[in-house]
Amino acid sequence: xxxxxxxxxxxxxxxxxxxxxxxxTTALAEKTPNEPIELKYMGKTxxxxxxxxxxxxxxxxxxxxxxxxxxxxVLYSEKVKGENVTRNYRFDINEFDLSSNDFGITVQVTTxxxxxxxxxxxxxTAHVVENFEVAKL
Length: 137
What we know:
alpha+beta, Immunoglobulin-like
């Protein structure tokens, strides 16, 4: 009987530890799938955030992509050409900096033909979830 109570307590403590803190990162600049240019948060790979950029163009077009930090410094840029181009970007940033209020990334996509620029601002938000379970023993 005593081992069953100890096992139940351990399971309860383990569940409490799992549910105590949960964080999520969202791309506040997410667009609908019908947009010609969209940026989506895909999750984390190796504990680093991954974003997917979709260029939904039916004809062969050229784009200039620029990724900047919150101070406007260019972190990465490239020129892409093609139809319905998809790129995944993984940001090498630690968990502390990612959850900081100062964290921010801007993704700019400019069409070479019209020089029209679309800009996406990415910010991180964290949510703390705390659950308690009370059981009569």
